[in-house]
């Protein structure tokens, strides 16, 4: 993606229905995909409003208008539900700020797509688990989120990224990257390539079960990292699930698993010292407890049984995606240092290994809760 110039930002800001005087603008958050900015407006003498402005990643999201249709449809659906439940629709779901032309996005003179949300104040999106309670509350929020979308018309959702969690397709893309080796990096990652090949079986764990109709496709979030949920600073509750770009029909196990991959790790996703990386069974149990509470009995017994597989498959898939991007020259995930994607890949594979070592414990913990909900 090309760099964003001051002029481009000014042009875009001018197209949205913002009120007041712009007092600052700064790059914001630690997402790997979009370009996010925080803007502060002063309104009158006393008031102020913070907004999020995002340039959508056009290389990744090839159909931004359809993507925005998903976001609009889902947030309107959530808003209705939140109001029915007596919640606060201004804070508990994303609120898009319209453009001056009435649309919910802006196309700039470079052909880039932008959208803007009201900034959710007095809430935090955490990059790592600071308190286990936050992780628990994030789990309740992601579980509930799935419940709130359980009656959303799945057929109306556009596929924003085809085969997003099709692990087999990810494997084929990985093989292609190895074969082409466009950056000449293959020789330096022999061990990691070997790891993927040894774990090929993980790429089809859910396929047969979906085909046989033994596990349902649900409307899922598909990117359930801890920093994609806002935790209320005052109440400590999971307030709002954000980053709705990948809402598509998917598997409950994958939403569960992606959260474990990121939040139950004892180290950051890009930690270099692999001795620090492991999957914390206490955090695994905490998240499981919260997620099942949030899902409120909606998961089938089979889905619950398969939750540990979700954790292993999502972690493996993510590691493989980081490795593929490294081999292809880091065009997908934003990187902030040399070998960043390789470092990320290594933490994921270390986690997979650790999960394999703790597999019986993971299954035992899961079984304990499955029995409670059966
Ligand atoms: P990416 O796809 O790049 O991860 P996100 O939509 O997750 O983009 O946004 C990046 C970060 O910006 C989030 O992790 C969060 O910290 C912050 N953010 C996004 N939307 C809001 C919002 N409405 N209110 C407060 N913070 C937000
Ligand atoms: C990306 O957008 P963000 O940073 O929340 C990615 C996820 C990966 C994650 C790895 C659309 O999530 O699939 O699991 O990075 N999102 C997309 O940290 O590819
Ligand atoms: Mg994000």
Question: Can you put this structure into words, describing what you see?
Answer:
The chain is an alpha+beta fold and 374 residues long. The protein is built from twelve helices and ten strands. The strands form three sheets. A five-stranded antiparallel beta sheet has the order 1-2-3-5-4, with no helix packed on it. A hairpin with a 3-residue loop joins strand 2 and strand 3. The longest helix is centred in the N-terminal third of the chain and has 21 residues, at 64-84. The radius of gyration is 21 Å and the shape is globular. The mean pLDDT is 97. GO terms for molecular function: kinase activity. Keywords: Kinase, Transferase. Residues 1-131 form the EAL domain.
What number is the mean pLDDT? 97
Hetero groups: adenosine-5'-diphosphate, 2-acetamido-2-deoxy-1-O-phosphono-alpha-D-glucopyranose, magnesium ion
Secondary-structure element series: HEEEHEEEHHHHEEEEHHHHHH
Briefly note the structural class of the backbone: alpha+beta
Largest sheet: 5 strands, antiparallel
- Give start-end ranges of low-pLDDT stretches: none
Number of helices: 12
